[in-house]
Automatic annotation (TrEMBL):
Domain of life: Bacteria
Protein's name in the database: Uncharacterized protein
Disordered: region residues: 117-153
Biased composition (Basic and acidic residues): 133-153
Length: 263
């Protein structure tokens, strides 16, 4: 009875932010673990701690919402043991798994308030300007305006899932700050969105997931697949071998490729 009463009290004081409507769910265990790795959460866990300053509750991941111009950002949808759903940022849920969560937050909050008060005090102090002695300044030669370089027209990316053709260029490593490790990715070239008016993207990248690894990809392989594309520049790996480095900027990311066909 005491446990049930405690859960009821926690449920009543928890502030829930339920999903606005439909949200994405996990296709299978491989997809679930792939997303956990992307968010920096431990892949061996099925349950996670949701913490406040005076209590903690076990939750499970039900799915995630996507947002941003091309759906490149995620908000997690978690379920409490009483069945209530709420949304939470992946990085915040990751912080809640630390034993120091809560204590850290209070210390940081107090330090922040102190710094803000000091900044207000400094900004309200009046400063008397010092007049500089009059000196004749030498006339500077006028500079000719530099010609403006024309920027390439911005590509309007489709928000929905579309069909792609591409070729495997190479494999690369991207540093993941959530797990402080390098993640292997696939760099694609000659990427085209197949539609009535095809869109040429050039280079793009995607995670080298377990699904893709089943195809044993190699540079030069031609691919067809469905997926979503986002304007997200590929980062660099930390202490990556030369074979896993690409100097050319890769500005687009392919998310959740499916219906993959290797020619």
């Amino acid at each position: 009875m005491a446990i049930l009463r405690s859960q009821l009290e926690q449920s009543e004081i928890t502030i829930y932010i339920p999903p606005k409507g439909d949200y994405d769910t996990f296709r299978d265990d491989d997809h679930f673990k792939e997303k956990l790795k992307e968010w920096g959460l431990p892949t061996a866990k099925k349950e996670f701690w949701y913490k406040e300053l005076n209590y903690q509750r076990l939750v499970t991941l039900k799915g995630y919402e996507t947002y941003g111009n091309a759906g490149e950002f995620n908000t997690l949808v978690i379920e409490f043991q009483d069945g209530n759903l709420t949304c939470i940022h992946p990085a915040f849920l990751k912080e809640m798994q630390k034993g120091s969560f809560g204590k850290e937050s209070l210390i940081n909050l107090e330090e922040k308030d102190t710094l803000e008060e000091e900044a207000k005090t400094i900004n309200t102090e009046t400063v008397t300007p010092v007049e500089a002695p009059n000196k004749e300044k030498a006339a500077k030669p006028s500079k000719e305006p530099k010609p403006k370089t024309k920027k390439a027209p911005k590509i309007e990316l489709p928000a929905d899932k579309v069909h792609f053709t591409a070729a495997v260029k190479q494999f690369a490593l991207v540093y993941n700050p959530f797990n402080e490790e390098n993640d292997e990715v696939v760099v694609l070239e000659n990427v085209q969105i197949v539609q009535e008016n095809p869109i040429e993207l050039g280079l793009a990248w995607c995670s080298h997931s377990k699904t893709l690894k089943k195809f044993e990809l190699a540079p030069g392989d031609l691919l067809e697949f469905d997926g979503k594309v986002a304007a997200k520049k590929m980062g660099k790996g930390k202490d990556a071998p030369e074979d896993f480095i690409i100097d050319t900027p890769v500005l687009y990311k392919i998310n959740n490729p499916s219906k993959i066909n290797k020619k």
